[in-house]
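Please predict the structure of the following assembly.
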Amino acid sequence: MARPRSIWNGTITFGLMRVPIKVHSATQDKSVHFHEVHAKDGAQIEHRRICSKEGKVVPYNQVAKGYEVKKGEYVLLDQEEIDAAAGRQSREIELEEFVAVGDIDPVYYNRGYYLGAGDDGQDAYRLLHDAMERAERVGLGRWVFHNREYLVAVRPLDAVLALHTMRFADELVDADSLDLPSPSRKPSDREVKMAGALVDSLSASFDPGAFEDSYRDRVLALIQAKARGEEPELPDAPEPSGDTDLMAALEASLQGS
Amino acid sequence: MPRSLWTGSLSFGLVNVPVRLETAVRDRDLHFRQIHRKDGAPIEVQRFCSEEDVEVDYDEITHGYEPEDSEQVMISDLELQAIEPRRTRTIDIEQFVELAEVDPMYFDHPYWLVPASEDDGTVRAYRLLTEVMGQTERAALGRLVMRAKEYLALVREREGALTLTTMLFADETRPIKDIDAATQKSHKPARKQLDAAVAVIEALSEDWEPDKHKDRYRDRLRKVVQQKRKGETISVPDSDQASAPVPDLMAALERTLEELQAGSSR
């Protein structure tokens, strides 16, 4: 079978080691995509760029990018100047440090990619893969991709290496800022024990293939039905309700499971 | 308070906890507006009906889909919600798993899950679930429908609250079998090489300190804006050429180790 196309080619370095790699996408969009249409006549909706002063359509070559430095005051930049912020267009990802796999909270992982071995780089690729696997460590470095610099983590994933762009700590919202309400009393030992038993009874090992996107198929079925001229029924959405008797609900759940 | 993205309930056996989602990621990017060069006025994007050539209000817009074998079908938001009325409003916990078993490749977007009311029953049920999940170090799997898409969702305790991460379905990740991972026997590293590579990794090992890593791109972009504001010219940096692989892996590993040892004993 043909190799999937790569979206970036370059070299991972650590110490004096150089590992030629190819970056491949790891995900594929399976959602049903709609376009915007005017409900009245079914005609496509067009997005038009209108000058807020003249009220007229602006041709694309007349569009600049502006950053608002003060209310209503924009600094205009060319795309090239914005791209300059990416820094040097490096073809290298230097793994500057390695951290323990389990130490990174999953919330930091953003987008995932697969890495394939680059030309003449198979031995080095396999060496990096096997060494990280044995050390149970993840390499951290910087990656310049599409004119933007990312913090990335490189790690073994089964037989391949995976690369993830990472979120920065200052992008994450702390739980402290959520202002969570406190209950009148802490959960009782008995409640905690019962809930723990319920968690145990519902525990299983993770099998990603066991979950299918049933919604996607049903959206397509709805489209087919409407194409045949059928009108779908619209059931009322059930109202969610909070249970007041936590203990009774836990007991009933355990009996049912 | 941040805008809530989804409100409904988290259902755990027969226990229902009314909850809402709030984003766990704040957008720190610099955003640019489209500006009309000629007069410096901001550009607004307006929606027009391509047939009538008039501006259309957002609530007059619906979803269109063209099946291969028939004419366009229009689907409303209400019809999309009706497909999964329960999952549009309820996350049913289907099972609990060990967090470490879930590969980060499946993670999509993180949210906080917070009680949707200050009602004591709700708050207590939320606390109980948070506490039990923290103690057992398990994460819950369920599904929800949001913005006309169904997501697999992982709910777990973090910093004393519940966090929900939308996840990709297995068929939304690509198979790894097509990737050249150099799995042939001939590429298997010799024991000596592997030992040396592990030694290099260990010498370069640090604790994970998320705060230490800064978004240099964001800082530089802010600087570019400042320079431009002062009327300075922005220099565009050069590109590097791709470099060649090392011919002798073992020699490179040994030199790296020597350099790292020399560096640490300085």
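The mean pLDDT of chain B is 90. Helices of chain B lie at 77-83, 120-136, 191-203, 216-229, 249-265.
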